[in-house]
Amino acid sequence: WRSLFCRSMCFGSSSHFEGLITTIVGYVLLAMTLILCHGLAALVRFQRSRRLLGVCYIVVKVSLLVVVEIGVFPLICGWWLDICSLEMFDASLKDRELSFKSAPGTTMFLHWLVGMVYVFYFASFILLLREVLRPGVLWFLRNLNDPDFNPVQEMIHLPIYRHLRRFILSVVVFGSIVLLMLWLPIRLIKVMLPTFLPYNVMLYSDAPVSELSLELLLLQVVLPALLEQGHTRQWLKGLVRAWTVSAGYLLDLHSYLLGEQEDNEANQAANNNNNPPNAHQNNNNPAPAVGEGLHAAHQAILQQGGPVGFQPYHRPLRFPFRIVLLIIFMCITLLLASLVCLTLPVFTGRWLMSFWTGSSKIHELYTAACGLYVCWLSVRGITVLLAWMPQGRIVIMRKVQEWTLMILKTLVVALLVAGVIPLLLGLLFELVIVAPLRVPLDQTPLFYPWQDWALGVLHAKIIAAITLMGPQWWLKAVIEQVYANGIRNIDLQFIIRRLAAPVITVLLLSLCVPYVIAAGVVPAVGVTAEMEILMQRRIYPFLLMIVSLVGILSFQIRQFKRLYEHIKNDKYLVGQRLVNYERKSGRASSVPPSDPIAE
């Protein structure tokens, strides 16, 4: 025991997260101590101490469970995703160990971020499944849309072993899905397409924040832009419903998966068509309706007003065997879908990028994003054409002309708003923040337009979000108007005149004015070469500091003016109503006063 304790202490001292691990272990020991003290207080019947110790234990318990649910579980998912995808990037555990030793905090944060994204999209898919499947099929998964679901209340009331069992079950389920949809497809791809893998994710080593910017661009721009589209969600929901209907009829589980509502509606429509008009009146018996209402009211009383969340279904013969076949069919479908998602967008993106770059290797995030958008546009175009075909050739030609004009306008807007503005914004961020911090004065900074554009897209998204959440001013009104118009009613003149032109003008002035001062005015003064280099490299952050100080001072001056007006009004303003004010005689004489005696 002594050697084991010494080894554990040495491991804790050599750990990169000694403080965090020590804090968590301390909270666990504190919770155990509170449980022991609570039991002793109950034994000796100290009610106030028992109640206080119980409250303290609940606070520590909820804090630890929140740390486990939000911190530890996504971290485990992120590391498991990384381990299962090592062959996809031609990496090894030794490489991950070296990266962890070189930057432990960044490595843990990136794995936690990937795990959180995985958990978020898995939960979103479960919510979509609940919209399609019969209530009660996913009884083993918590319904996040349930108004009675309260995670904090569950953390308080459920015992620790229930939470531990749920945590282990979640780890097993999420880990099995990663094995099924990531590790096994990678093995199959390496067997069927030996030259397809690995993905190329290595860029220039001296490019600042290259991989991080691309990963954030894919996670924060590409995927939300696709998943937030209503058509994409409807397509996915339609595919899930088609698969559910097919599996239900093949395995005779239609009632179990979708419920009896559709069948009852179809049978009711058929009976209404077959029965004569008087038959419905003869069969109109109010007693079953009353009985059904009393039964529903009784169930509502038993459930205390909460939803039942379950629909009855028909149980066929050999039901467990059919459920096993359904699970096998679902696993095969997920495997095939994962194979298509891992190969088709990347293959399409590589083929399209080869026309511009030739045989040079490109980061697979670029190829995957390009292929993903091309596949989405192709599917969208096919669905639109299928919807237009019954309307005739003339209508199709008119629609094609309208959509061609709309696409041209959208391309112009995308070139300005998603191309020029992010590039200028990323270049300005590079000159103001990145280059002064990373590049010494005796070295020449190198700029990569693709990296600057990627960072500019992220910064533009952040600025737009802050603008929409901030107070009302002209940029917020313009962005809201553009968003309200949408793509179908896009106003190219309004966007260029009110949004693109002012923003591009401000960014160009921010880039050009300091350069003209540093490269044109300063050499004309006759300073040394070192001073010229110092001015060229430090003028951008210096002007940013000046602009920030001016903005802060102007804001404080406005606040002081408001405070002065408020104090003056509170001290000297008697009332908010005008006194000693008389109307004009002409307007007063035109309206004769009423005679109260005559009335």
TrEMBL record:
GO terms for cellular component: endoplasmic reticulum membrane. It is an enzyme of class 2 (transferase). Residues 267-288 are annotated as: Disordered. The chain crosses the membrane at residues 20-43, 55-81, 109-129, 167-189, 209-227, 323-345, 365-389, 410-433, 453-475, 495-518, 538-557. It is found in: Membrane. Its main location: membrane. Its EC number is 2.3.2.27. GO terms for biological process: ERAD pathway. This is RING-type E3 ubiquitin transferase. It comes from Nothobranchius furzeri (Turquoise killifish). The gene is MARCHF6.
